[in-house]
Amino acid sequence: MLAAGSSSRMGTPKQLLPWQGDSLIVNEIKKSLDLKLVQTYVVLGANFELIEKEINCYPIHILKNKQWKLGMGSTINHGIRHLMNNQVDFDAVLFSLVDQPLIKVQHLSSLISKFDSYPNRIVATKMKSRIGVPAIFPKTFCPELSKLEEDFGARYIIEKHKDDLITIDGGDKTIDIDTLEQYNALLKREKE
Question: Which of 82, 96, 99, 171 is placed for a possible disulfide with 177 were both Cys, Cβ 3.0 to 4.6 Å?
């Protein structure tokens, strides 16, 4: 789970914004914990102490990316390097974000099921205008993921490997929150 950003456009740590009785980050953690055979790693950066205090009671691994200011690529790089350097046993990595709260655990399960059928392919979420995360990358892509820098996220590798890609439509659930206006609009939508 990639949660290292400073939420600069939000003006407050979006990871901790309330969502359905929890915070956005706890909402995402609970979805991850509902998945079978998944270990949850959360990569934090900005506001580490504040956010870590909110989530350290869950059975997850919390990583601190000290280079979070470099962007999403650095956060992916940090998480992947941790797995590789600590010889964690895994077949693939599922990337998710805390700012896509409408994505349900069923979508994540669908990605995993599709990956189980095609274990050498990237399985990503199709959105209105792009393809991105949540997405699963087979372990064979980890050396490449570990070299991402700055603000080149998983989309960069998805674009590069279109021939190795399978998508699952995320429908209207792929909205991500970057501003307070977007957050408030999503809260209003959920109440309707």
Answer: 99
